[in-house]
């Protein structure tokens, strides 16, 4: 099965599960949709890596302490991830991306800026915190 079909099925399953259970908990999300998701509590989910007992790098989804105002229970769409030029598999977030013209152009593009408030809010707050 192609990875795009898998992600589509996964996203549909998560929407169904969310509708059934009514709650998004970061630690229960698959790592493929962790980044740019917001738990029912309003806290951002973040992707972390760790080494298992055999020394292999594994990934897990965790709840951060960052609360997103006016947004909860949100799993970012693949369209927004693509339009904004971000990568769900990146561990952590860095302001270094602002120095890359292609990233900034995508983030400020109408497709991202007007349709993806979660990603825009995340990077706006990062920029504000860094003093940009």
TrEMBL record:
Signal peptide region: 1-22
Highest taxon of source: Eukaryota
Keyword Signal included in the entry's annotation: yes
Pfam families xrefs: PAR1
Keyword annotations from UniProtKB, A to Z: Signal
InterPro entries registered for this protein in UniProt: PAR1 (IPR009489)
Coiled-coil residues: none
Protein name as annotated: OLC1v1034995C2
Species of the source: Oldenlandia corymbosa var. corymbosa
